[in-house]
């Protein structure tokens, strides 16, 4: 039996114990399993209470059951959902029972979503979006993932692909004409106009920089400065500000290396570059390696100093924005501190006491504003992954080739257009993506 014809099951809800746990079953055996467990198959899509029993007649749990006959189900196959009491013992008893059924096996990570994809319920951008939605930490991440799930990019890509196919049909029609020695320009001209307009349209989507890719991982803010200026103190101060925090990633027992903030719905990761240090601990080493890679690629650098005269060194790329943050204002005279307090966000200069928290709220507020501008508040972005960007770039490139190849013959033009259409097909997961699928779906959790 092909693996995709097997019936799979998994716990689809979160960590136990919980009030309720949801076990999903998908595949041709779903109805047989349901009728064995409940004594009957409930009405489709109707929440039905039922006492689950083992095949030996032993009660397992008093449960709520849902029956979704395919293809009108999440995976496109027959699906059963068992809402059980969320204890380890109930789950263990149910899983134990399910394991006694032949042709039933535990699902692999992402296998439900993969089946939904393979049965045409969602395209690849939708599958990616589902994963993003499950992992969304902030409100803007949630919004973007939901828009993608609803076809923001997928629908556009499908429409573009259709237009390319239509243009290709016009070009190929003129190949037939040219056999008779006469290539009618009236046929080709509109096709090329269409191709040029399409290349421009996709090009615009690519240049509209709303940083959708960064929305997945967070805007990166690196704290840089001499030893002892207070970098660790600042990051620990940020980590203590529980209102803003998503998850502090502590470098085991020592300083926090990075904090993840939710600023106005935008994810922001602040990295202490001094936390990047030699360590023998393997877990910590991995954290350090990641922090290093991300700091090198920072969007905003906070140059922390405790002396007015210090100037930031050349940091990262030319485009990176550097803000000067003077620390330890609590150590200065009243007058001096007040003067520094007048340095506003507009001048990209701040004065704080990382230790006592003074000025930190203003700094965080300014970073939030920076994030809002960076992501383009309220605007939608079609591109949420590098994969999308690469394939749209390829599409534009092949469309431009087809225009450049106009004088070199219709066959060449038609081949260019096929390549452009193929790039969009890959984006949607319609063709040539076998190699990609294992990578994408293995990132999912089990039960999704
Ligand atoms: P790092 O090497 O840049 O990470 O600096 P640390 O955060 O380890 O701080 C070095 C020293 O400066 C520590 O003793 C901190 O307590 C102290 N420090 C940090 N920020 C402040 C501050 O705002 N005011 C005062 N008075 N001391 C501070
Ligand atoms: Zn430090």
From TrEMBL:
An example Gene Ontology CC term for this record: cytoplasm
Gene3D superfamilies assigned: P-loop containing nucleotide triphosphate hydrolases, Probable tRNA modification gtpase trme, domain 1, tRNA modification GTPase MnmE domain 2
EC number: 3.6.-.-
Main location: cytoplasm
Keyword tags: Cytoplasm, GTP-binding, Hydrolase, Magnesium, Metal-binding, Nucleotide-binding, Potassium, tRNA processing
Binding locations of Mg(2+): 232, 253
Cofactors demanded by this protein: K(+)
Subcellular location: Cytoplasm
Residues holding (6S)-5-formyl-5,6,7,8-tetrahydrofolate: 24, 81, 121, 448
One Pfam short name: TrmE_N
Annotated GTP binding sites: 228-233, 247-253, 272-275
Matches recorded under CDD domains: trmE, TrmE_N
Cofactor notes: Binds 1 potassium ion per subunit.
A single GO BP: tRNA methylation
A GO term for molecular function: metal ion binding
Residue ranges annotated for the TrmE-type G domain, each copy included: 218-372
Family: Belongs to the TRAFAC class TrmE-Era-EngA-EngB-Septin-like GTPase superfamily. TrmE GTPase family.
Known role: Exhibits a very high intrinsic GTPase hydrolysis rate. Involved in the addition of a carboxymethylaminomethyl (cmnm) group at the wobble position (U34) of certain tRNAs, forming tRNA-cmnm(5)s(2)U34.
Assembly and binders: Homodimer. Heterotetramer of two MnmE and two MnmG subunits.
Protein name: tRNA modification GTPase MnmE
């Amino acid at each position: 039996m092909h693996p995709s014809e097997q019936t799979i099951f998994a716990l689809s809800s979160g960590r136990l114990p919980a009030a309720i746990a949801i076990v999903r079953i998908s595949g041709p055996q779903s109805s047989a399993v349901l009728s064995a467990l409940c004594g009957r198959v409930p009405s489709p899509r109707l929440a039905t209470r039922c006492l689950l029993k083992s095949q030996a007649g032993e009660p397992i749990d008093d449960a709520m059951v849902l029956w979704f006959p395919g293809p009108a189900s999440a995976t496109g196959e027959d699906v059963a959902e068992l809402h059980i009491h969320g204890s380890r013992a109930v789950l263990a008893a149910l899983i134990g029972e399910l394991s006694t059924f032949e042709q039933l096996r535990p699902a692999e990570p992402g296998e439900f979503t993969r089946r939904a994809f393979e049965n045409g319920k969602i395209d690849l951008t939708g599958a990616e979006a589902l994963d993003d939605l499950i992992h969304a930490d902030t409100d803007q991440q949630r919004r973007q993932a939901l828009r993608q799930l609803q076809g923001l990019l997928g629908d556009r890509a499908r429409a573009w692909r259709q237009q390319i196919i239509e243009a290709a049909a016009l070009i190929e029609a003129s190949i037939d004409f040219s056999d008779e020695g006469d290539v009618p320009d009236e046929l080709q001209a509109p096709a090329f106009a269409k191709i040029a307009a399409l290349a421009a349209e996709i090009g615009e989507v690519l240049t509209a920089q709303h940083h959708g890719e960064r929305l997945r991982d967070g805007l990166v803010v690196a704290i840089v400065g001499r030893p002892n200026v207070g970098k660790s103190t600042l990051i620990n101060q940020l980590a203590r500000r529980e209102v803003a925090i998503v998850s502090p990633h502590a470098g085991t027992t020592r300083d926090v290396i990075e904090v993840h903030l939710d600023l106005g719905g935008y994810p922001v990761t602040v990295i202490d570059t001094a936390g990047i240090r030699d360590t023998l601990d393997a877990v910590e080493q991995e954290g350090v390696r990641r922090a290093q890679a991300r700091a090198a690629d920072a969007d905003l650098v906070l140059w922390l100093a405790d002396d007015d005269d210090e100037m930031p060194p050349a940091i990262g790329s030319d485009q990176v924005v550097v803000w000067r943050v003077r620390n330890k204002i609590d150590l200065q005279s009243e007058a001096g501190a007040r003067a520094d307090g007048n340095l506003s966000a507009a001048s990209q200069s701040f004065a704080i006491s990382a230790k006592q928290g003074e000025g930190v709220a203003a700094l965080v507020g300014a970073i939030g504003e920076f994030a809002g501008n960076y992501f383009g508040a309220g605007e939608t972005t079609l591109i949420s992954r590098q994969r999308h960007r690469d394939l749209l770039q390829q599409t534009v490139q092949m469309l431009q080739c087809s225009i450049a190849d106009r004088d070199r013959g219709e066959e060449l033009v038609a081949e260019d257009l096929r390549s452009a259409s193929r790039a969009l097909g890959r984006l949607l997961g319609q063709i040539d993506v076998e190699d990609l699928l294992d990578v994408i779906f293995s990132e999912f959790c089990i039960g999704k």
